[in-house]
Each structure stands twice: as structure tokens, then as C-alpha cells.
């Protein structure tokens, strides 16, 4: 018996002599004292007094995956975990993104779809095909809920498609005993109270708007297609709609500089809307594939500097401090199992306006990377190729973070210099810096939640 | 020993983030329903 390679020990927390143990495979989290910690060093000595005294706890740690019997058990459990990520599907919800159009009234400087921009919209024929495909998949896998996220281009440039698909799926799901919800991922320019009220009748539950700062900070990255700023109108719409719907905000930042994010959060606070919003999700701006037909001609390669380990770690810390200061709910644990959708057999998918199916939004506009079409019930050979990349096999099996990373983001392998999807993209230095902090935060949050629950009782 | 969180074994039990880079960052390119609330 020994500690699993996938167990992280955070020493002297919450108190001196205490240790937190966390499994990156099973997400088990325990606090142990110095006595049990010392027993973990003599696990194979059955006669040792510490080993005898802590026998039941050691068995419990083994059941939680924090300890393993031997190397073979470690490898077997790791393989089972990674196979599950690859093939299993979450039956609770089928999350599908539907593009109503590639057309957009904005011309964002970093848009990954710009070279694929067309005015072709999701027409009636393809709406019916999407509906037919969704019904088939929901029945085939027995999903309990269907969640459609409308995306683009700008999805609100083709509102009839949203109405047609959502009205039919709402009716059909009700008849089948399946939950149905929809969301909008929009630039916010056309998101008026009338639009929100119309779509709430079709089970609209949230919208997500991108803001890259206040005023000129935002307009610099997200101008109108014909020129001119967009911030004032988008913000007016958010203020008008904030009482009607949770509106999440996505915020891009460059070079680890979160000053525009801070300014935006303060602005939203001053406007009295900050605590009415949905989740705020800041993300570093990343490179994108090249133009249509030339994906290897990566654009924005200099943006890779935004993903340097030190830059990311410092930005993550500053964002956490900012959120605490402003009373913004912190995101759920950073120690989640992270799954690249490209390598999952049956994860969420994105359907473009011509019925092509993609597993990674950042590959939209490059038909050679589509994994299927709504005319077919099975994915194509490209889908099989992505699923079987198994880049984790390039990683050392004793890497602490392998179960939660499984070889990393396939897109980052492509745009980060490899120009193919086949190389693992390792962020171990980032995780080694951040994981202890995330684990401490999880511990603090969990104990605070339990304390609050006990007070309520 | 204080158990804060028991081990999880299935995809339905595990806390999973799809399309998040780098792992642990919460940089979600495609938020799913459970990420929105």
C-alpha cells in the first residue's frame, strides 16, 4: 500500500501539523493530523504501532483512491478513469450549441470565425434537420435534459431559427418527459427586453455576453462591423435586461493584465447591476486557426504569451482577490476534471448553420475538422481520429495531474506551435503553482458551507 | 481524519469542466448549463 501518484499533499493546512490530501482522479479531499500522516510512511509495516492504530483510516483512504495497493492497481484505475472520460456520457443533460448564422454585426479583432464569415443562415430545411437529429440523440442516449445554447456569428441576427427550433423542442421534450432549456451566447447588441421576454416563453434561462472592458477598452477589441463603438448600446441592453434574466459576462484579457476587468467590475458595481448578473468568466485571449483552407497559418501567435504559466497563475490570483473584494461568487473548484470535448465520444457538440457538427467551437469554419453532419446519426472518420488521439499516453503515468488533464487542450496543441492535434499540451508548472491554492480554497469553502448549514439547522 | 469529500468514480459524480484551458483556470470557452449558475 502506498500513496497514489495522483494524490496531492498540502502540508500545514489548515493548522500547523495538519495536511490536506486530494486525489486528482477521484476528487476525494480529507484533512489528516500529523499522527496519521506519519502512519502513511509505514503502510507496509503491519506490525508498526502507527500502522495498527490507523488501520481503519488507511482502508478508508484506499477506498477513496488516495492510496493504492500497488503499481498495477494505480495503472488499472487510471486507465479506467481515462476510458470513462473518453466513452461515457453524462446522461443528465445533452448540451448542444447551435449556430443560427456565421454572420455577425461585430468585427472583433480576435474572432476565430472571421475568415469563415458568410451571410448564410440556418434555413428552414436545416432547422428541420437539426430538430430531427436532436430528437434522435436524446432518445438514443436517454438524456434527461436538453440544453441548447444559440451561438453564431451573432445568433440574434436569425431569430426565426431560434423560435422554430426551440418551439418544437420545447413541445417535443414536454411530451417525452425531458427537460428543455435554452441560452443565448450573444454580443448583446440586439439583446433587448422584448427579445428576452419573447424567448423566455421558449425556456430561455440565461444569456452570455462578451465585454472586454469599459468604453474604449471594449470598443478596441469589439467594434461594429461598419466601424464604431458598441459598448454603450450593449451596456444599455444589459442594464435593461438584468432584472429579467441572469446575464453571464465573458471577459477576454491580454498579457495577464486584468486592469480592464477591474474597471469593468467596478463600473457594473456602480451601475447597481453587478450582483444581478450571472457568472463572470475571464479568459486570456488565445491564438486562432488561420483562414479557411489554411488552418496552419495561425493568427495571433503572440497571444500564446497570455498562456505562459507564470502569467496565468498571477492573473488567476489577481482575479480571485478582485472577486473576493467585490463579493462576486468564486467559480466552483479549479480542481475539476477537465475534459477536451474533441476527444470525447459523446460529449456536447456544436452544429453550424449548414448542419455540420463540430466538437470544438474554435474549429468552426474549417469543414475539414467537422466530425459529422445532422444528415447522419454517426460521426465520421475525423471524429474517430479525434476520439482516438489518446495523447495522455505521451505523458508520464506518474504525473500527479494526468487524471484531471488527460493530455490537455487539443486546440492549444495546434495553435501553440505544433500545428497538429497529436501532441500533449502540458500545463504542469501552472498546476504545481496553483493546485495547492485551489485545494485550500476548496477546503475553506466546504467547511464554510458546512458551518453555514449547521447554523441554519 | 476529517473527510471533506468522498471519492467519486463515475462521470456523473465527478465535477467535470468541458473546454477549460488550462486545467484549473476556469477559462471556459463553452460554458455548459451547470457552469452558468
Could you explain how this protein is built, in words?
- The complex is a heterodimer of chains A (457) and B (37).
- With 457 residues, chain A is of the alpha/beta class.
- Chain A is built from 15 helices and 15 strands.
- The two termini of chain A are 40 Å apart.
- Chain B has 37 residues and is an alpha+beta fold.
- At the A-B interface, strand 4, helix 3, strand 7, strand 9 and strand 11 of A face strand 1, strand 2 and helix 1 of B.
- Strand 12 of chain A pairs parallel with strand 2 (16-18) of chain B, so a sheet runs across the interface.
Keywords:
heterodimer; A: 457 residues; alpha/beta; 9-stranded mixed β-sheet; 15 strands; 39% helix; globular; B: 37 residues; alpha+beta; 2 strands; 19% strand
Q: Biggest sheet of chain A, open or closed, and with what strands and sense?
A: 9 strands, mixed
Distance between the terminal alpha carbons of chain B, to the nearest Å? Answer: 32 Å
The helix count of chain A comes to 15
SSE topology string of chain A: EEEEHHHEHEHEHEHEHHEHEHEEEEHHHH
Low-pLDDT windows of residues of chain A: none
Percentage of residues in DSSP E strands of chain B: 15-25%
Largest interface: A-B, 83 and 36 residues
Order of helices and strands of chain B: EEH
**Helical content of chain B (DSSP H or I, runs of 4+):** 10-25%
Shape of chain B: elongated
Side by side, the strands of the main sheet of chain A go 11-10-9-8-7-6-13-14-15
Please tell me how large the radius of gyration of chain B is.
12 Å
Count of beta strands of chain A:
15
Largest beta-sheet characterization of chain B: none
Question: Could you say which overall geometry of chain A the principal axes of the C-alpha atoms support?
Answer: globular
User: Can you tell me the residue ranges of chain B where pLDDT is under 50 for at least 5 consecutive residues?
Assistant: none
> How many distinct helices of chain B?
1
Oligomer status: heterodimer
Query: If you average the pLDDT of chain B, what whole number results?
Result: 79
Estimated radius of gyration of chain A: 24 Å
